[in-house]
Amino acid sequence: MIRRRTLLTTALAASAVIGLAACSEDGSDPEATGASDAGGGSEGGGPPALSGVTISEDLGAEPTVEFSAPLSISAADAEVVVPGDGATIAEGDTLIWRSLYVDASSGETLQSWWQGAPAGGLQVTADGVGQAAFDVFTTMTVGSRFAMAGWQQDQSGQARSLIQVADIDRIVEPLRAEGEPGDPSGDFPAVTLGENGAPALEGAPEGDPPSGTTREELIVGTGDTTREGDYLVMHYTGWSWADGKQFDSSWDRGAPFSFVQGSGKVIAGWDQNLLDLPVGSQVMLVVPPAEAYGTTEESQHELAGQTLIFVIDILDAAHRVD
C-alpha cells in the first residue's frame, strides 16, 4: 500500500537471479530492488556471457569490471567471483549487499555504492525470486562477491544489457524489533505483539487525530542510527484512524519491506519521520492525509483523505559510503 516506484520487470532466464538496476534514459538514479532470473551458458552453446569479463577480487575496494564493449549477452549468466567466509544463505534470509551496475553495451558504470549510490538487497525465497535464483543464492555465503549478466527494462521500457557485481555484506537479523521499552504518551491505542513480533492495536483510536505526523517510540533499539540515503529494511502494519481496521501488513506477507530513505519512493510521513532511529526500534507513526495519500480531491488512492496509523520495526539501515 505504500507509494513507491513500480519495480521493473526483467528478461533474464534460466539459473540464477539478482536485483538489477532500473536505469533512467541517461543512466542515472538506478534502483536496485528488483529481481531477475539469470543462468550460465548461452543460446546455441556459445560461451557464457561472463567468460569475457574480468572482475577484481579485492573485497576492500570498489570492483573493477573489464571487458571489450559491446558485450553480447545472449543468455543471462552468474558466477561467484570471491567466495565469502560467512554463513551460508538460507531460505527466507534477507540480504544486504553493496553493488555496482555496468552497461554491457558501453562499459559505462551506471551506479556504484562505492561512489555514493544506495545499498541494496532482497529476501531469498523461491516465490519471490524464482526457483533458479533461489537455488543459486542458497549456495552462496555471506562475504561473497558475485557477478550477474542479463537485462533490465529502463524507465522508457527499453531492455538494457547489464552486468551487476555485488558484495554480500550481511543477513538481516533479527526480523523484529529488540531493545528497551519506550515511553509512549498514552494518547493512541496500545500495541500488543504476537509471538513472532507482529503488532496489533488494542482497540480503535478515539478523538480527533493529530494535524501533523506524530511519532512515538515503543521500543528503543541499540543499533546504528538511521539517516537519509539508507537502504532501510523494516516490518510494518497499517491501520485506519477512522475505524481501527488494518489495511496492510508486511508481516502478513512474510517479507520485510525495503526502500531508500529520503528518496521520495514512499509517503512523506515515512520519508521524514524514520530518521535518527536506532536499528532495532519499533515506532508508531500517526500520519494525516497531507503526509500520506492526500485528500480525496488530490488523489484517487483508496486511502485518500484518511489519517493512518503505522507500527514499524526498524530491522536494518545500510548506509551509503562515507
From TrEMBL:
Gene3D superfamilies: 3.10.50.40. One of its GO terms (molecular function) is peptidyl-prolyl cis-trans isomerase activity. Residues 37-47 have a biased composition (Gly residues). Keywords: Isomerase, Rotamase, Signal. Residues 229-318 form the PPIase FKBP-type domain. InterPro entries: FKBP2/11 (IPR044609), PPIase_dom_sf (IPR046357), PPIase_FKBP_dom (IPR001179). Residues 24-54, 176-216 are annotated as: Disordered. Residues 1-21 form the signal peptide. It catalyses: [protein]-peptidylproline (omega=180) = [protein]-peptidylproline (omega=0). Its EC number is 5.2.1.8. Pfam families: FKBP_C. This is peptidylprolyl isomerase.
